[in-house]
Structure formats: structure tokens, C-alpha cells
Amino acid sequence: MVWLEVFNFIHFIGLAFGLGGATIATIISSKADKDSEVRKAMNRIMPSISKLIGLGIFLLIISGIFISFLVKWPLNKNLTILKHVLVVWIIVIGIIIGKRIRKRKDIRGLSKINLILWYAVTLMSAFV
User: Fold this and answer.
1) Rounded to whole angstroms, how far apart are CA atoms 117 and 25?
2) What are the backbone angles phi and psi of residue 24, rounded to the nearest 5°?
3) Which one-letter DSSP state was computed for residue 74?
4) In whole angstroms, how far apart are CA 127 and each of 73, 76, 122?
């Protein structure tokens, strides 16, 4: 039972890193469209924020796998599958944003969609 608590804690840390990083990235991205100084700073800051989000996703995936094996009570499989699909979409959109960050195409819209997906996964984590 101790391992379940450890991996549950790691899961919440991963969620905090991912959600916090996505929130910061969206805010900076929206401010960069209006201010050229913020745009210059964004190019220096975004790689670190991307690493933070990537670490969050990694922690979520690893801890989620272990949690699913350690849980003794039945899980809501439909909600769990939906949560996994949303995480895959977060990863796909994150890769697209990463490739287009230099071109600045559609980043703001994709960033907002990604943020909404992060908040949806966070809400679902409270129920799964």
C-alpha cells in the first residue's frame, strides 16, 4: 500500500509540472503576440518550459502504469480510457507546437487547446 501512495504522489507531481508548464506557456505565448520583448524572452524560456511539461508527462505515464497495477478496487475503465486518449492528444499537440514554435504558425490556438486538455485531464484525475 505504501507504493501506491508513492506513485500517487509522483502522479500528482507530474500533473502539477505538466499543467503548470502548459499554463505558463499559454500565458507567455499570448503575451508574446502583443509585445516584441516578451517574444524575444519566450524564445529563451520556452525550451525550459517544454522540458518541464515533458517531465510532467513522463512522470504521469510511469506513475499511471504502476498505479493501475497497484490499485485493488475497480477503476472506471471508460473514464480511464478517455483520460489516456486526452494524454495522447496532449503529446501530439505538444510535438506539433514544438515543431512550429520557430515558425509561429497557429501556436496560440494549439496552445489554448493543449491547456484545455490539461485541465480536462486534471479534472478527470479527481474522479479516477
Assistant:
1) 14
2) -65, -45
3) P
4) 13, 9, 9
Contact yes or no for 66/83 (Cβ under 8 A): no
pLDDT in tens, the chain (128 residues): 788 899 999 999 999 999 999 999 888 888 877 888 888 888 788 888 889 999 999 999 999 889 888 887 777 788 888 988 999 999 998 888 777 666 665 677 788 899 999 999 999 887 76
Q: Which three cell numbers stand for residue 7?
A: 506513485
Report residue 65 as a C-alpha cell. Answer: 502504469
Q: Which residues does 120 contact at the CB level (< 8 Å), separation at least 6?
A: 86
Exposed/middle/buried for residue 1 (C-beta within 10 Å: 0-12, 13-18, 19+) = exposed
58/72 Cα distance (integer angstroms): 24
C-alpha cell at 64: 499511471
Task: Provide the residue ranges of all domains of the chain, joining segments of one domain with +.
Answer: 2-125
Burial class (CB in 10 A: 0-12, 13-18, 19+), 3: exposed
